[in-house]
Here is the input.
Amino acid sequence: MSYLNETHDTTLQSWVASANVADNGFPIQNLPFGVFRPQGNTQDFQAGVAIGNKVLDLAALAAAKPFTGQAAEALDACTGNSLNGLMQLGQAHWSALRLALSRALRSGSTQQATLEPLLHDLDQVELGLPAKIGDYTDFYISLHHATAVGKQFRPDNPLLPNYKWVPIGYHGRASSINVSGQSFPRPVGQTRPTTEGGTPGFGPCERLDYELELGIFVGQGNAQGDRIALDKAKSHVFGLCILNDWSARDLQAWEYQPLGPFLAKNFASTISPWIVTLEALAPFRIAFNRDANDPQPLPYLSSADNQAAGAFDIGLDVLLTTQTSRAKNLEPAHLSSSNFKDAYWNVAQLLTHHTVNGCNLQAGDLLGTGTLSGPDKGQEGSLLELNQGGKQPITLPWGEERRFLQDHDEVILRAACRKDGYPTISLGQSAGKVLPART
Here is the structure.
């Protein structure tokens, strides 16, 4: 099936001049959704759409009533302080609003006079958490990450037997998810005893790590007991963001057996403020290929459409700044690059598997992909992989070394879609800084 429509036309230009600048990331073909408020203002956040270096105030636009039909209904759902109302309307409404906004923002639009006064400079606004996240599930869908980590603990058998059959995941903590720009204190907790049968250690985490992930925002949910079929899953996904699921590796090593992640993962997660819709990402859909030597997905996780266009070509980057580098005004250190297309499971499969037992998803729920590492050196999605579990520290361009994150380190994750002949579609960035532990 074709996922493309007139909003993807590569020749489209906007009367917002900055949207036409090459590689600006937010051209008229993107139109990501988020929430914002003027800097220094304590008013509620309000819905907006990014276009070039501007953000369009959707609540103010709704008051002007420029659209009709489903586009008008969708715009009316953008008057709260989150995107949940829009998310729960469903794909037909999202598409109608995207089309109406695209036409209104195009060069020559008769609606320019209505929209232009409702634009704000992006560098003059504060961006907030785009949705009220009711539940958060983190998956583990990178074969390369799972293998690299598994080798550190089980050199002869890095993957557990279920990995290639079932998308592995766990339920995380939604309350500690925040938006790019956050700072959080280093977590404190128990660590493995230094001697067998000894007393556990207690104190600030010493092996703090980042995890390069994407987040999947659920749009319209499903009733408890119902399942979302694979080829219907795309209509239940509102869009994608960038996710850093910070991890306290030393706390995790002591607590994760037998029930899995707990305090090592729930102290902070950082997402990018913009949600790029699946419709905006349609030009970057690619075939989802499973190695012929691997088990093929069970029938409920496989379809012709999913095989033909179930994966996404999204480039990912990890950068790091430190207190020293910022004091010297140095550029962030680039640590690694990877791509979502190398994941072992895809977006639709995660949604379908999550609901196959009758679990009910709701608008605003967030699914994490798990760390997205690639097959080659330089494509690691965590420090745990980059430095072989702390055995081989990395050297930063300005001379500092890192085994794991130190206080005042800032991790910046970026994601963008690029291909010849099409404008760059950016997912923005997720930046977070580690503060000293509170004692």
Summary: The chain has a mean pLDDT of 97. The first strand starts at residue 33 and ends at 38. The first helix runs from residue 58 to 64.
